[in-house]
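Field log, afternoon session.

UNIT: design team B
ACTIVITY: writing a sequence onto a fixed backbone
BACKBONE:
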């Protein structure tokens, strides 16, 4: 009995010692899984799908255009000087059995418009798409108007859709006798699902193609090579680069009867696209966009602002009453010149974009100052990137 008690106590002590070890192993394993998940997340965040950086040749939208009338405006339509609006109204009413002389028709609640839309690929008869309505006369607003049935034609002159419906304008116009207030563009509106597709484009030839062409939206030799290598890892020998932006892909025999599945498998493959080192500058609003691959050589930067303030004033000397004197006007000019003190900052060669931005922020430059600094570094030959000013 005594020995059995001793054994139980040892077993209890051993169990208490194993429990912390098992718990530590569990936390270690969980930490490893968390680090692996974080690594995979970072890796996938740097990649992009092939469908996001390229398109299949021939699979694109087509532009449609038409001319129509907007009715129901509250006195904000075209004026009598817009002759084609009255002529269009007269032609429309004549088709309905009403004869109106366009020379005497004077209305202010209609406006002539151009209607535009994009016909998506693989659109079928009866599908609905959005349409944009833009005034071409001297109407002040098409808010609250309704577009009359308007045929939309393609570049071949065929009718591919019919547009009609109430217009939604992202702005307004309010005016009185001596003043007016305008927000955004009240002469341009949109009709959601305002076009009904009436004619389809033929895409049956894609079911018979042995070779499919893929074009990159931004041609680049490195990105093209990576796309080819990524496709060939799944379909060996199927992809071949024709140039820096076009890839020829041969459909495997087992997937020729199902091209949709083949294209879906290709467009969802992930690659890391490459790009040219580039800086885009918009001087109109002071916007600067710097690419990831931008590098600079060793350069010292000092930037300071010179402020000159000139204030013009006049001093008037009035004579005493009944002194028969004259009023003397003396100009008074005050000039103040201030120069902001700045220090030189040395940026070593091969710095990354993060280091470049941190260095420029360290000397307190504004976006417009940064534009000048980047242009100066480029002129000095120390910026290894294309500087595009728009």
């Amino acid at each position: 009995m005594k020995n059995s008690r001793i054994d139980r106590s040892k077993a209890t002590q051993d169990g208490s010692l194993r429990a912390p070890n098992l718990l530590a192993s569990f936390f270690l394993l969980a930490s490893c899984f968390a680090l692996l998940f974080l690594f995979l997340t970072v890796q996938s965040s740097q990649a992009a799908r092939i469908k996001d950086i390229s398109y299949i040749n021939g699979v694109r939208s087509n532009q449609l255009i038409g001319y129509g009338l907007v009715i129901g405006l509250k006195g904000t339509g075209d004026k009598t000087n817009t002759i084609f609006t009255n002529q269009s109204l007269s032609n429309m009413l004549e088709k309905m059995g009403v004869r109106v002389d366009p020379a005497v028709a004077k209305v202010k609640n209609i406006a002539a418009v151009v209607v535009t839309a994009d016909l998506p690929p693989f659109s079928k008869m009866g599908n609905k798409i959005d349409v944009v309505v833009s005034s071409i006369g001297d109407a002040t607003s098409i808010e609250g108007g309704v577009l009359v049935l308007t045929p939309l034609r393609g570049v071949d002159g065929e009718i591919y859709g019919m547009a009609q419906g109430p217009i939604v304008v992202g702005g307004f116009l309010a005016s009185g006798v001596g003043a007016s207030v305008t927000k955004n563009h009240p002469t341009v509106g949109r009709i959601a699902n305002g076009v009904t597709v009436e004619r389809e484009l033929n895409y049956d030839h894609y079911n018979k193609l042995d070779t499919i062409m893929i074009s990159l939206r931004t041609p680049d030799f490195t990105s093209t090579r990576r796309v080819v290598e990524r496709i060939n890892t799944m379909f060996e020998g199927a992809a071949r680069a024709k140039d820096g932006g076009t890839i020829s892909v041969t459909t495997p025999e087992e997937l020729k009867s199902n091209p949709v599945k083949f294209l879906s498998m290709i467009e969802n493959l992930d690659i890391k696209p490459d790009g040219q080192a580039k800086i885009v500058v918009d001087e109109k609003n002071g916007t600067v966009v710097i690419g990831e691959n931008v590098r600079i050589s060793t350069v010292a930067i000092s930037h300071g602002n010179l402020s000159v303030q000139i204030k013009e004033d006049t001093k008037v000397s009035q004579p005493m009453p009944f002194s028969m004197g004259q009023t003397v006007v003396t100009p008074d000019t005050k000039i103040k010149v201030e120069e902001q003190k700045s220090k030189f900052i040395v940026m070593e060669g091969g710095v990354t974009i993060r280091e470049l931005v941190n260095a420029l922020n360290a000397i307190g430059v504004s976006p417009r100052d940064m534009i000048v600094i980047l242009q100066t570094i480029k002129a000095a030959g120390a910026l290894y990137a294309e500087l595009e000013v728009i």
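LOG NOTE: Residues 2-45 form the longest helix (44 residues).
NEXT ACTIVITY: expression trials, pending approval
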